[in-house]
């Protein structure tokens, strides 16, 4: 019922100033997916935060559902500032990349418990890897898989042929050598193998054994971006 209080744990993805003293928090929760809550009197008149409601903060909150997209926040407490992600710029950039992807792709009120668990695992592992780009690129691919947009193997958009040795992508679609349009980007055999490894890795150890060159990373991230924009 709309009048009942709900309790959830979640990660703040975005903070939006509202009126003179309030904030709207976009929070990705395990129980309810992405929700937006109004926190009243959570900042001072000059816009400085009175509390620590910033993106990349894990919180526990009690909120009341109501008609519309924004719920009223009754109580909120900080569980984790993710300080381990704030000591190195590369770690912070990787973490911010992940939460921005979630904010851009998740629908309000759509539960995604498996994606929430995956997010927590990746945030925890960022400081443990020498190359955080491997984690963020893998997360992009797994996010597309979670949304039902990407599967293994890729298939040509025209003839539906499975693509194992190479692939071409253009404006969010994938093609084989016989059907790719002019201007398509080419994923060679070694690059498509890396894509599949990043997509299908089942543990952190497998991820650390992958070599991701910058050119391959840029191609995969471009493919992910174009695919998301097409949806």
TrEMBL record:
Domain of life here? Answer: Bacteria
Entry annotated with the keyword Glycosyltransferase: no
CC per GO annotation: bacterial nucleoid
Q: What is the role of this chain?
A: Involved in DNA repair and RecF pathway recombination.
Q: Which UniProt keywords apply?
A: DNA damage, DNA recombination, DNA repair
Please name the HAMAP family in this protein's record: RecO
- From its record, what is one biological process in GO terms? DNA recombination
Report the residue ranges that make up the DNA replication/recombination mediator RecO N-terminal domain in this protein.
7-80
- Pfam families documented for this protein: RecO_C, RecO_N
Gene3D superfamilies from the xrefs?
A: Nucleic acid-binding proteins, Recombination protein O, C-terminal domain, Recombination protein O, zinc-binding domain
Per the record, the similarity remark reads: Belongs to the RecO family.
InterPro entries linked:
ARFGAP/RecO (IPR037278), DNA_rep/recomb_RecO_N (IPR022572), NA-bd_OB-fold (IPR012340), RecO (IPR003717), RecO_C (IPR042242)
Tell me what this protein is called: DNA repair protein RecO
């Amino acid at each position: 019922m709309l009048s009942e209080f709900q309790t959830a744990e979640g990660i703040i993805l975005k903070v939006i100033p509202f009126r003179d003293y309030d904030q709207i928090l976009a929070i990705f929760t395990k129980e309810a997916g992405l929700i937006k809550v109004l926190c009243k009197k959570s900042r001072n008149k000059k816009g400085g935060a009175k509390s620590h409601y910033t993106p990349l903060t894990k919180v526990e909150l009690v909120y009341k559902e109501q008609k519309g997209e924004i719920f009223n926040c009754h109580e909120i407490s900080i569980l984790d500032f993710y300080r381990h992600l704030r000591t190195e710029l590369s770690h912070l950039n990787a973490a911010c990349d992940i939460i921005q992807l979630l904010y851009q792709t998740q629908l309000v009120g759509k539960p995604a418990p498996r994606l929430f668990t995956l997010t927590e695992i990746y945030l925890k592992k960022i400081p443990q890897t020498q190359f955080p780009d491997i984690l963020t690129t893998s997360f992009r691919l797994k996010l597309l898989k979670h949304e039902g947009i990407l599967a293994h193997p890729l298939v040509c958009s025209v003839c539906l042929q499975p693509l194992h040795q190479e692939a071409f992508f253009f404006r969010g679609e994938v093609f084989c050598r016989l059907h790719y349009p002019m201007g398509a980007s080419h994923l060679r055999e070694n690059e498509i193998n890396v894509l599949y490894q990043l997509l299908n890795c089942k543990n952190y150890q497998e991820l650390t054994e992958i070599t991701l060159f910058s050119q391959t990373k840029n191609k995969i991230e471009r493919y992910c971006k174009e695919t998301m924009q097409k949806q």
